[in-house]
Amino acid sequence: MAIPALRPDVVLLDMVMPGVDGLAVLRDLAGGGPAVIVLTSFLEDERVIEAVRLGALSYLSKTTAVDRVVEAVRAAAVGGSVLEAGTAALLVERVRQGHRRNPLDLLTPRELQVLAELTRGRSNADICLSLRLGRETVKTHVSSILTKLGLADRTQAAIFGLQQGLVPLDEALDG
After folding, report:
1. What CATH class is the domain 3-98?
2. Residue 73 binned pLDDT confidence (cut-offs 50, 70, 90)
3. pLDDT of residue 98
4. CA dist 44 to 2, 140, 142, Å?
5. What is the pTM assigned to this prediction?
6. Which residues touch 120 (CB under 8 Å, ≥6 apart)?
7. Span 98-155, pLDDT tens digits
8. Cα 44-48-50 angle, rounded to 5 deg
9. How many CA atoms within 13 Å lie on the side-chain side of 59?
10. Where in the chain are all domains bearing CATH 3.40.50.2300?
11. What DSSP string runs through 67-133?
12. How confident is the model over 17-42, as a mean pLDDT?
């Protein structure tokens, strides 16, 4: 990508360009790159949130007044942000929702599979066979699950899995 080679202080990035995904560009610029201001026609929830997560300092509509864009560039040059009211409201709502986030979102897909097996009452040896994993790998996943969910043992993990509806009760009883 040519942007890092130019070493700009601030980049105005259109999220929708022919043949280029704005989020992919943001990912490439993440980590010590220039300050990024996103300009877009769409204020879609997920794209706004992902752009901010990837380091965009400002997220503005293409209909934003020029003086407001200039303000955003000046702010970004010193690490600041300028947000339109709609974007700010969206981010505030997402932060509020984040406090009520589903704890299962903390787990990787493989950890979810291991938790489902725990919920079914399976031993580590059985989990190894059903998921085709090594014993140490299963132990590591179980430990990670307990840590991420703040649980003391595999029994608590199984109860948690049931409470979250990870497996139907009859499957857990059959284990």
Report:
1. alpha beta
2. very high
3. 61
4. 27, 37, 36
5. 0.52
6. 167, 171, 172, 174, 175
7. 655 678 888 899 999 999 999 999 999 999 999 999 999 999 999 999 988 888 899 9
8. 120
9. 27
10. 3-98
11. HHHHHHHHHHHTT---B-HHHHHHHHHHHHHHTT--GGGGS-HHHHHHHHHHHTT--HHHHHHHHT-
12. 82
Residues 108 and 159 sit within 8 Å (Cβ to Cβ): no
CATH annotation of 103-174 = 1.10.10.10
Q: Determine contact, residues 34/62, Cβ cutoff 8 Å.
A: no
Closest listed residue to residue 118, CA positions, set 106, 108, 130: 130
- Residues 36-67 pLDDT 10s: 898 888 766 677 777 888 888 888 888 889 99
pLDDT score, position 72: 92
Whether the pLDDT of residue 34 is over 90: the answer is: no
- How many Å apart are CA 15 and CA 11, to the nearest integer? 12
Q: Provide the b/e sequence for 101-126 (b: ≥16 CB within 10 Å).
A: eeebeebeeebbbbbbbbbbbbebee
β-partners of residue 74 are none
* Residue indicated by tokens 């509509």: 61
Inter-residue contact 116 to 130 (CB < 8 Å): no
**Sequence ranges of the chain with CATH classification 1.10.10.10:** 103-174
* Whole-number pLDDT of residue 56: 87
